[in-house]
Amino acid sequence: MAVQSTDLIIVQRDATLYSATVGDLPSVSSAGTITSGALDLSTGNSFKYALTANATLTFSNIPAGFSMWHLTVTATGTNTMTLPTMIEMGGAAALDPPADGETRSYTFWSYDGGTTIYGGASA
């Protein structure tokens, strides 16, 4: 069965229920820009980053309410990648950078305009 744009999705976080129709969820098709390590969410919600040196990444212009964004990182060399403080989904090493020559995808989301950020990554 395919998901329709009018299907309802309900997510519970702590004691709060959030709901949206599929059509209301953010699209991950708009390419965003990264300037000096800042992922600017006003420019899009899908980012690509080439990790060629140690980097500190930040998130700017996170929309109010629920938002979700995606980051694909390709590493050249063995470098560190520092991300903003967040609740890591999948364990302490879940948001480590990819190994040299590898690519890793990350998904981040917030229910409160960026006050609390959640994040997880592909294996």
In words, what does this structure look like?
- The protein is mainly β and 123 residues long.
- 0% of the residues lie in helices and 44% in strands.
- It contains no helices and 12 strands.
- The strands form 4 sheets. Strands 5-8-11-12-10 form a 5-stranded mixed sheet, with no helix packed on it.
- It is globular and about 35 Å long.
- The chain starts with 7 loop residues before the first strand and ends with a strand.
- The model is unreliable at 1-13 and 15-28 (pLDDT under 50).
Q: So what's the overall shape?
A: globular
The DSSP helix count reads 0
The low-confidence parts are 1-13, 15-28
What about the largest sheet? 5 strands, mixed
Radius of gyration: 15 Å
Order of helices and strands: EEEEEEEEEEEE
Number of strands: 12
